[in-house]
Amino acid sequence: MSDYDLSPLWISLRIAGLATAITFGVGTLAAYGMLHYRGRWRSLIEALLLAPLVLPPTMVGFLLLLLFGRRTLLGQLLASLNLSVIFTWYAGVITAVVVALPLMYRTALGAFQQIDPTLVAAARTLGASRAKIFTQVLIPLALPGILAGVTLSFARALGEFGATLMLAGNIPGRTQTLSMAIFFAVQAGDMRGAAISSALVLMLSLGVMTAVNLWFQRRPWQRPPSRPLQVLTRRDLDFSTPAPRLWVDIDKKLPQFELQAQLSCDGRPLGLLGASGSGKSLLLRCIAGIETPDGGRILLNERALFDAEQGIRLPPAQRRVGVIFQNYALFPHLTVAQNIAFGIPAGLSEAEKQERIQAQLRLVKLKGWENRYPTELSGGQQQRVALARALASEPEILLLDEPFSALDAHLRSQLEQEMGEILADYKGVTLLVTHNIEEAFRLCGDLAVMEQGRIIAQGDKRQLFEAPPCLSVAQLTGCKNISRAKLLGPQRVLALDWGCELQVQGSPAGEYIAIRAHHLTFRPDGKLPNTFPAWLVKWSETPHRLTLFFKLGSPPAHRQDYHLQAEVWRERWREVEGWGSPWWLQLDPRHLRVF
To answer: 248, 308, 454, 561: which could form a disulfide with 556 (CB 3.0–4.6 Å)?
Structure first.
């Protein structure tokens, strides 16, 4: 190899290196710009960006030759400046950029699209600017894809031949790259020179890809979880600010759904109940500023977060809203301490930031875990970090989107108790989204029920549970026994689906009658009002309670032939189980509700 000309190697490295750097910057910015662009020119812009990927390289070179030729405006402008592109080494850079850019663009765009949008939403609610989100969230999380695009771009630029030959020519020592050296060596019969050049191209391409793969394997935040669960038992939090108030009256139309929600909330935690798809999470996203309503207003402490009439739409960064997302939305590339620090307002000294981080770690009992990554934490620990991160930003309102849905029953109970203590002392507004009535009842003072995008009831939890204003509220708050009803007279109703006449209290105007499963009572005989013989059809059980399915009036014909569900403690069932079949089941008039 002593007589081998190394100039094609240095020319190739110079062209490929510079082209890769340019492609990285342009391709990444183009991908970021196209990530959310849905304008009328999107298809045309993408077609132009991807065209060099499908066009023959010689055709690309010819088009570039026309573009930089002396008869074009660009060529004339360069000539007036005494500059020439054609047959220079930087012509090779231009062709390498053009042919490698599509690979960089598509790879970076795909990497950005794979990022969980909840992470971006979380960053916005924590006060991050677009520049901070781009540099500290999107780029680090998309880095595997971006570097894959860089390696592909480098390999493509290193091996470019046709377009470079058209624009830069094959001038030994000036524009002759390794690809050209291989081609012309073969034409000249110099198989040894062609083999050496091919080996150099192969080693460079494989070396870059291998180095990138080894770097990825050593990233600490990709390690699998390996730490045991730490039990959270108590906390200490105090805010001295007065109890704030939230007022919402908004509407938002989607293709197959319309949100029209009105609610208010003071210092007591408000539980938002509703079936899946009722609009609960959408309402939270509108309050946080992640989604924009079409009309209405959102006020927090008499401060307008959104007002359609006045044109007010505060960005999430200015709303002082803390959001606990269903999947916690921790940044996987940041440590626990860095996640908490992400939401700390700017302007504090480094010592003050560290003091606040340590205070939040003590609050959630994760002292000593600050250098762990989210993948090294259990689900409960991740939830606590998400809570600490939200509280570190000193929010005026906490929005919790089903925070316990991903936890097992034991951990759910522990963290629910801890969350209850935090919410009891937190002086801001709290809005908890859930579909679990028991969870909402334990954590919240007030409840709001949402159905098909509308708040259909709101009030004190006990009042709403004991006296639901409509059938939908009764169903969404857990009432399982509902029958069509026919009025027979004053305080007399025929339950059509249960086949029995019932005595009720008040004025029984309505089409349905309902009673909760735990309000059914076992009696030793049928002397009391609304007491009927009942046959047990089937049952289901938990460790402490049983759900019993009964048919009134006659034995069942099959396992689906039942009228009512009764929920009883296991100890109570042991007392009445021996009473024999049929049992006497009372539908207490005090607990019957007619809708």
So the answer is: 561
Token pair recorded at residue 349: 């000294």
Tell me the pLDDT tens digit for each residue of 242-297. Answer: 445 899 999 999 888 899 999 988 778 899 988 888 888 899 999 999 999 999 99
Instruction: Give every CB contact of residue 335 below 8 A, 6+ residues apart in sequence.
Output: 221, 370, 371, 372, 373
Both 204 and 282 in one domain: the answer is: no
Domain count, the chain: 3
367 found inside a domain: yes
Q: Rounded distance, CA 534 to CA 481, Å?
A: 15
pLDDT tens digits for range 25-62 = 999 999 999 988 888 898 999 998 899 888 888 888 88
CATH number, domain with residue 467: 3.40.50.300
Same domain, 457 and 483: no
CA distances from 252 to 263, 515, 528 (A): 15, 35, 52
Q: What is the pTM of this model?
A: 0.76
Helices (H), 36-84: 42-54, 57-68, 73-80
Please check whether residue 397 is in contact with residue 431, taking contact to mean a CB–CB distance below 8 angstroms: yes
| DSSP 3-state of 551 | strand
Helix (H, G, I), strand (E, B) or coil at 176: coil
Please report whether residue 465 resides in a domain: yes
Q: Specify whether 297 is located in the same domain as 182.
A: no
Q: Give Cβ neighbours of residue 179 (< 8 Å, ≥ 6 apart).
A: 12, 158, 159, 160, 161, 164, 201
Residue 148 · residue 28 · CB < 8 Å: no
Write down which residue in 177, 201, 219 finishes a domain. 219
Let me know whether 391 and 293 are in one domain.
yes
Secondary structure of residue 485 in the 3-state scheme: strand
Count the alpha carbons within 13 Å of 468 in the hemisphere toward its beta carbon.
25
> What angle is formed at CA 337 by the lines to CA 335 and CA 338, rounded to 5 degrees?
65
> CA-CA distance, 488 to 486, in Å (whole number)?
6
215-229, 251-265, 277-291, 323-337: the lowest-pLDDT one: 215-229
Residue 342, number of CB atoms within 10 A of its CB:
21
Closest C-alpha to 290, from 325, 258, 338? 325
In a domain, 224, yes or no: no
The CA distance from 334 to 377, in Å, is 13
* Structural domain harbouring 530: 479-594
CA distance 181 to 196: 10
Distance CA 108, CA 491 (A): 70
Residues paired with residue 307 on neighbouring β-strands, in sequence order: 297, 312
Q: Which of 3, 26, 323, 16 is nearest to 153 (CA)?
A: 16
